[in-house]
Amino acid sequence: MTLTDEELVARAKAGDLDGFNQLVSRWERPIYALAYRTLGREEEARDVVQEAFLRAYRGLRGFKGEAKFSSWLYRITLNLCRDWSRRERRAPIVQVPEGTDPMDLADEHVQPAESVEDLVARREMSAAVAKAMAELPEEQRTAILLKEYHGLTFQEIAGMLDCPLSTVKTRLYQGLSVLRRRLERRQAEEASLRRARFESL
Amino acid sequence: MCDERERLIDYLYEEADAAARHEFERHLETCAPCREEVRAFGAVRTDLLAWDVPESDSVWKPFAPPRAAAWWRDVPAWALAAAAAVVFAIGAAGGAVTRTIADRASAHQVASQQAAATTAMPAQVVPAGVSRADLDAFGRQLADSMRSEMDTRVRLVSTHASSRAGGPDRDVQQLRALLQTGDQRDRDILNTMRLLNNDFISSKSSQDRTIEQLKQRVDQLSNAIALMAQQQAGGKQ
Q1: Cβ–Cβ under 8 Å, residues A54 and A63
Q2: Structural domain harbouring A161
Q3: CA distance B43 to chain A (A)
Q4: Which residues of A touch B65 (CB under 8 A)?
Q5: CB B9 to CB A125 under 8 A?
Q6: Is residue A100 part of a domain?
Q7: What tens digit of pLDDT does each residue of A52-77 get?
C-alpha cells in the first residue's frame, strides 16, 4: 500500500525515520530537477537538494500541512537557490559542451525509435531551451519551471511565491512570449544555415 | 493587440472551467492574434519538453533507525560491578579452598612424620622431672589432637567445597533470572551479592583461623621436639 505524503509526514513527525526516507525517495528527483534548472549547475543542485531535505526534516514539526508537502519542499528549494545565487552573485549557466559530436552520441544509449540525428537534434534543442530559460528574469523563469516541469496550479504557484494569482499568469505570459521570440529566432537561424549549406552544395 | 492574456493562459494550461473555456474558444474564432499566440505558445511548451536533466545518484543518506540497545545497558552500573565482584569472589574462594586443602594435607604429612620421628626416638635418657613416658604421651596426645582437628577441618572444608560445586552455575542462573525481572531485580541482585559476599568472607575468615591454629600447633610440636632433643642431648652428656 502506497502511503500519501500527508501520511508519511505524520509518521515522520511521530519519529518514524523511514517515513521521512520514503518522502525523500519520492521527491528527491523532482527537487533535484528544480534546483538544476534553476541554477544550471549539477554540483550546486546536489548541495541544494541535500540542504533542502535537511531543512525540511528540521522544520517538520513546524509544517502544519496548510500547503502540500511538495509545495513546501519546492519553496524551501527555491529559497536555497535564491540564497545561493545572491551569495555567489552568479546567474544560471548552461552546462552544455560547445558543439555536440555525433560520434560521441552514437556511442551512448539511443532509444530504439530515435536515430542519432534525432538524438543530436534533441540535445541541441535541450541546450537551446536551457540557454533561453537562463536568460529569463528570475520571476518568469521560476513561474515557468513550476508550471511546465512540476505541474503546479496557478494557485499553488501564487501561494509559493507570495504573489497574486494574476501576477503568476502575467509572469507566465511574459516568459512564454520571451521564449517564443528566442526559440523562433533560433529556428530561423538554423533554417538559414541549412539553406546556406544546401546552396553551397 | 488583444487584451486577453489571463484568459489565454487559463485556456493554454487548461485551468479554465468549462464555461470560460467555451467562451474563449468563441473568442479565438474571431481573434487571429490570440489564435496565433495559442499556437506559438503550444510550440514553445513542446520545445520546453526537450530540456533534459542529467542523471544524478541520490545525495541523500537515509536515516538509520536507532540501534537496539544491548540488554546489559539496562542493568545498573553498580549491579554490573557487583556481578563482576561475585564472579571474582567465586573464583578466589575456589582457589582458597584448594590451597587450604593442599596446605592441610601437607601439614598433616609433616605432623605424621614428626610424630613418627618422636615415637622412634630412643628412650635412653630422661631428665629429672620429665619421664620418657611423659614425653611419649605428650607427643601422642599432640599428634592425635592435631590429626583429629585436621580431619574435622578438612571434612568441613570438603563439605563446604562440595556445597560450592555447581555453585557458580547456580549463581549465574540466579543472576540471569533476576536480570530478567522488573525493578525488584536490582534489589534482589544486591541482596544476593551481599549474601554471597558475606558467605565468602565468613568462609575465608574461618579458613584463615584454622590455618593460624594449625601453625600454632605445629610450632608447639616443633618446640616440644626441640625440647626433647635438648633433653636427650643433656642425658647423653
Answers
A1: no
A2: 109-201
A3: 8
A4: 17-18
A5: no
A6: no
A7: 999 999 999 999 888 899 999 999 99
Task: Quote the pTM value.
Answer: 0.58
The residues near B235 (Cβ < 8 Å, ≥ 6 apart) are B124, B125, B126, B127
Average pLDDT value for residue range B135-163: 66
**Total domains in the fold of chain A:** 2
Q: Which residues contact B56 (CB under 8 A, 6 or more apart)?
A: A32, A36, A42, A45, A46
Tell whether A68 and A129 lie within a shared domain. Answer: no
Q: Are residues A77 and A128 in the same domain?
A: no
Chain A positions contacting chain B at CB under 8 Å are: 17-18, 20-21, 24-25, 28, 32-33, 36-37, 42, 45-47, 49-50, 53, 122-123, 125-126, 128-130, 133, 144, 147-149, 153-154, 166, 169-170, 172-173, 176, 179-180, 183-184
Q: Are residues A126 and A192 in the same domain?
A: yes
Closest Cα in chain A, distance from residue B62 (Å): 6
Whether A123 and A83 map to the same domain: the answer is no
Query: Domain-by-domain residue ranges, chain B?
Result: 5-47, 74-236
**pLDDT (average), residues A107-135:** 80
What is the CB neighbour count within 10 angstroms for residue A71?
A: 18
- Which amino acid is located at A168 in the chain? V
